[in-house]
Amino acid sequence: MDIIQIPIHLIDEDEDQPRYQFDEEALQELAKSIEEIGLLSPIKVRTTAGGRYTIIYGNRRYKASQMLGKPSMPCIVSSATDEMEIYLEQIAENLTREGFSPIEEAEAFHKLMHESKFNSSIKYLANKLGKPESYIKNKCELLKFGNAVRKLIVSGTEIREGKLTEDQLLPIKDLPFEHRDPLALIIARDALPVSDVKKIAKLFKDKEISSGTKDKLLYKSGYELLQTWSTVQQNKAERERAAELKAEQAERAAAAKAEKARLAAEAAEREAAAGVAGGGTASGASEASASSASLSGDGSGASGAALSGLGAGSASSNDASRVSGVGASNASSVSGVGTSGASGVSGVNLLGELQQLLGALPALSAAPAELLAGVTQAEELQAVITNVDLLLSTLEQRSAELQTVRDLAATRVNE
Q1: Is residue 94 exposed (0-12), middle (13-18) or buried (19+ Cβ within 10 Å)?
Q2: What is the pLDDT of residue 388?
Q3: pLDDT digit string (tens) for 323-352?
Q4: Alpha carbon distance 252, 58 (integer Å)
Q5: Higher pLDDT pick, 345 / 126
Q6: Alpha-carbon distances of 332 from 201, 303, 329, 346, rounded to whole Å
Q7: Model pLDDT, residue 280
Q8: Contact yes or no for 166/139 (Cβ under 8 A)
Q9: Highest mean predicted confidence (pLDDT) among 41-55, 265-279, 340-354, 379-393
Q10: Kind of pairing, strands 52-57 and 43-48?
Q11: Which residues of 52-84 are buried (b: 16+ CB within 10 A; e: fewer)?
Q12: Cα 349–355–358 angle (5° rounding)?
């Protein structure tokens, strides 16, 4: 492709080109470089009516040459006439050049997708420019912001006071306009890093915070907004923990209630079984009496007397032995609680176990108010409540068991 020298006065800038922001300081540096070592690469132009030329790309080099008063400059003349191809070439060239801002990119992509003479799709643009579709979508998201914010957007990732990067803005892009743009200006003013912007964005997306409260938050500095976010997160964590403790307590209470019902059912079964056994004993005693009377009536007095004497002697010796060796409490076990030693636990053992249980219930070491005097933290107080609830639940279960023992004993006393 031939390079020719074209008089600068015959070259026009393209008013529809995607790049329109030029940093004055950067232009001065470029002009100085051209003056010292010359123009290293030509600009590209296309022919227009009247023997004139319109720039396809190379506007910064053209402006710098004008500043130096150059009469002409090297150019590549293109024969392209398709508006789509020319515009895509302009975008592709500027993407490789310094200073092409994210907003200029966004506006160029938007133009290609929405103007009737282009009407391109994101997929088509991504393929032609060699960029991911997400790259183009994210750039277009920047157009949600107002002009005051757009003027501050710069390329790159460096955080600078009074400027905004694409990474700083994307976390807040979906906020309502009345919060989005004022928040963007706070981010620029305080030069907030992206990690802090993401936290503040979560604060403004929180549905539990009213719109009116969010309006008031816009009067805060970036640092104060971060403090507010931290406080909100801490309060949420405390509420979640309290809800978990409440659920645990409800679960333990339900378990205790179920255990109490189970013990009551077992006690009822034992009482019913004891009633059946008592009826059988009484029937046996009646049959024995009838048999004894029958024997006496038959004239077997010697045998009856012998049996009577044997029974009496045996009963007397056993009872005396048990009373003298065990005591009155064991005698009651023989007469009803133990039912002739059929139970695996004797009266003495039962009483000993009850006394042990009674002795294992120590009194508190101090008055309740004194015990709680040193406990001030909410988490510690909640732990006290949880443990007391657990202790009371356990005592309630044991109480139900002891009540069953007492009821059975009372039933047998009354038999």
Answers
A1: buried
A2: 85
A3: 333 333 333 333 334 343 434 445 667 777
A4: 77
A5: 126
A6: 79, 32, 5, 10
A7: 53
A8: yes
A9: 41-55
A10: antiparallel
A11: ebbbbbbbbbbebbeeeebeebbbbbbeeeeee
A12: 145
Name which of 356, 347, 361, 360 is nearest 405 in CA terms.
Answer: 347
Mean pLDDT of 92-104: 87
Question: Residue 141 pLDDT > 90, yes or no?
Answer: yes
Cα–Cα nearest to 201, from 168, 223, 224, 178: 168
Distance CA 219, CA 199 (A): 17
> In which residue are the tokens 């006439």 written?
81
Q: For residue 95, how many other CB atoms are within 10 A of its CB? A: 14
pLDDT of residue 1: 64
What is the pTM assigned to this prediction? Answer: 0.56
Radius of gyration of the chain (CA): 49
Average confidence (pLDDT) over 69-85: 92
* Parallel, antiparallel or unpaired: strands 43-48 and 72-78: parallel
Q: What is the mean pLDDT of the chain?
A: 81
Positive or negative: CA dihedral 72, 78, 84, 89: negative
- 4: alpha, beta or left? (left if phi > 0; alpha if psi -120 to 50): beta
pLDDT digits (tens, 9 = 90+) for 149-207: 999 998 888 999 999 999 999 999 999 999 999 999 999 999 999 999 999 999 999 99
- For tokens 């922001």, the residue is 21
Q: What is the pLDDT of residue 263?
A: 87
Contact 333, 339 (CB under 8 A): no
Residues linked to residue 164 through DSSP beta bridges, in sequence order: 153
**Beta-carbon contacts of residue 194 (< 8 Å; ≥ 6 apart):** 159, 167, 168, 171
pLDDT at 346: 56
Distance CA 278, CA 276 (A): 5
